[in-house]
Specification:
By secondary structure, the chain is an alpha/beta fold. The chain has 13 helices and ten strands.
């Protein structure tokens, strides 16, 4: 991901492949032509270039063997270079406490969708790389996946400090969900100030009950609330719900299918997806894409 960002800036990026080939080639989700969207997203714009390289990104073992003469190095480890140990993305999210926020109280553990930790670590690595290149000279940038996971869970220490309790699954204050609609799902996201507008949109007199008067009480009566809201959402399309919600300034939005993203007005305006579904990095400066000449091996 860090190398993807560099390529988006205009850097020449070389990613050595293992003898077994590209590991992302068959990873879902798939584009309309059968290619892996993950592979295209991460590797588009990377090409075979020859050294000398300005920067290198990799594991401590790779950098020690292959990148001795490269001035700027980004060393990515699981915990720390000197005491690293194998771990899965799922276990790192659990150790950081992030999985304590995901899913229903009393239910089975649920992981975050996609590869959010990996992308966040890539952003951290890219930020450190850019700072090191700007400073000049030789530098080793260290990025710990576990440290990144802990930083993503910043609400835990903040909550402990300010409220004396750690946020957890089933907290009655946290009940944003996806609701089934007639043709898919809707992300039901709203704050306390939006409740009167949401209540008016649904128009069910049962929502006037005092037990739904605050965010906390709605969380405490969540199953009863869902029982009232769900039939209303199921009876309408995503477009009908979203149009009505936007008119009332409620931050509700549809859950889009991958094929629908190709026609999404926001993605088209930002140039994020090409017509064949190929994603690109929508970074611009004064209306133009950034041009940056640097070579990198990752």
């Amino acid at each position: 991901m860090a190398a993807k960002l560099c390529a988006g800036y205009g850097a020449l990026v070389h990613r050595p492949r293992s003898p077994e080939g590209e590991p992302f080639a068959l990873a879902p989700p798939l584009l309309p032509d059968g290619r892996s969207a993950l592979d295209v997203f991460l590797n588009r714009g990377k090409s075979l270039v020859t050294g000398p390289y300005d920067a290198a990104i990799g594991t401590p073992e790779l950098l020690a063997q292959e990148a001795k003469s490269i001035p700027v190095k980004v060393r990515i480890s699981t915990f720390a270079p000197e005491r690293d140990a194998p771990a899965t993305e799922l276990s790192l999210l659990a150790l950081s406490g992030l999985l304590g926020l995901v899913g229903e109280s009393g239910g089975p553990p649920a992981r975050l969708a996609g590869h959010q930790l990996a992308y966040a670590a890539g952003l951290a690595a890219n930020t450190g790389l850019l700072a090191a290149l700007l400073a000049g000279g030789e530098e080793m940038v260290d990025v710990s996946l576990f440290d990144v996971a802990v930083s993503l869970n910043w609400k835990l220490p903040a909550s402990l400090l300010m409220l004396g309790v750690a946020p957890e699954r089933g907290n009655p204050r946290n009940h944003w969900v996806t609701m089934p609609a007639r043709d898919g799902h809707i992300a039901l996201v709203y704050q306390d100030k939006d409740w009167p507008a949401l209540r008016a949109m649904v128009g069910d007199p049962r929502l006037e009950d005092a037990c739904f008067g605050s965010m906390m009480s709605r969380g405490q009566n969540w199953k009863r609330l869902i029982g009232i809201l769900e039939p209303w959402f199921r009876a309408r399309t995503r477009r009908e719900i979203t149009t009505d919600a936007q008119r009332r300034r409620i931050p509700i939005g549809p859950v889009l299918f991958p094929q629908e993203l190709l026609k999404d007005a926001q993605y088209i305006a930002r140039g994020f997806l090409l017509s064949d579904g190929t994603p690109q990095l929508p970074l611009v400066w004064d209306g133009s894409r950034i041009a940056w000449e640097v070579s990198c091996v990752a």
